[in-house]
Amino acid sequence: MSADQSIGVIFGAGILAGMMGSLTGLGGGALIVPLLTIGFGLDIRVAIGASIVSIIATSSGAAAAYVRDHLTNIRIGMLLELGTTLGGLSGAYLTTYLPSGALYVLFGVVLLVSAAPTARRIGEELPHGVLNDRWAGVLRLAGSYPDRVIGEEVAYQVRGVPAGFSMMYFAGVFSGLLGIGAGALKVLAMDTLMRLPMKVSTATSNFMIGVTAAASAGVYFWRGDVVPAVAAPVALGVLIGASGGAQLLVRFPNVTVRLIFIPVLVGVGVEMLLRGLGVA
Asked: d(Cα 240, Cα 95) in Å, to the nearest integer?
């Protein structure tokens, strides 16, 4: 394959990764890292550097649209981003010292185990019986969003704020270590622990992943792991795909978003587990 063809394939894969990342809140890195390492034989740190840039592009392409459509809970995003930013900085510096194989296995196991409670609520359009906990009340985290599918303004409340905040730190660590955005853990924390509607979890995750990635991107730039010839087509493709995914999300019911999220979650979990075991 020629250099031009390789760039074209990477660009096309970036579009697909950006669309899936935008729809599920995972970020495009979950697909970009294995593509660049397995498909093109690039060093894992160069792939992570390109992935970090693509995650910022995903957030830029989708977050603005979700804020405009009032799907994003900015208060929750800013609060939880404190945890993910600290984790992202920790993870970026730990890459030199920790074995990546063990981290891939741990991340894969966490995703696969976390898929079970999400699957149990696969047919749930909106969470029921959720009441604000003390922190949600003090910080005024409850909100509402206009749902185009049911044609109503959907109000929701928030629980499990301390548990969600704690999980965000570990999501940030994985983001900095593996360059995947760790959007899966962010969506799971908001959907499972804090019981936000799935659309709100996805939109708020997209809002957050760019900040997390930006916090650790400087470390990768400083080490020379961001190669422009790789990162540029990835970022451009992801930006285009993320913008398209944002337009689709507002037209999908929460059930459909969860039906897309769970298979992608399981697929990423299996891929990470096998990669850590040296099988992928």
From this structure: 30
| Reported pTM | 0.75
Cα(169)–Cα(272) distance, rounded to whole angstroms?
A: 20
* Cβ–Cβ under 8 Å, residues 61 and 237: no
Amino acid at 258: R
Distance CA 105, CA 83 (A): 23
Closest to 260 in 3D by CA, of 159, 119, 79, 163:
119
The pLDDT tens digits of the residues spanning 67-102 come to: 888 889 999 999 998 888 788 778 777 777 777 677
Q: Chain centroid to CA 50: how far?
A: 15
Which two tokens mark 55? 């995650």
Distance CA 172, CA 56 (A): 14
Q: From CA 244, how far away is CA 146, in angstroms rounded?
A: 20
Q: How far apart are CA 109 and CA 264, in angstroms?
A: 14
Residue closest to 261 by CA, chosen among 176, 158, 186: 186
- The residue written with tokens 């405009």 in the block is 68
Q: CA triplet 93, 280, 92: central angle to 5 degrees?
A: 5
Q: Give the model's pLDDT for residue 156.
A: 94
| Ramachandran category for residue 250: left, alpha or beta (phi over 0 → left; psi -120 to 50 → alpha) | alpha
Contact by Cβ (8 Å): 246, 61: yes
Specify the 3-state DSSP secondary structure of 223: helix
Which two tokens mark 244?
């398209």
∠ CA 48-216-189, rounded to 5°: 90
The DSSP string of 89-119 is HHHHHHTTTS-HHHHHHHHHHHHHHHHHHHH
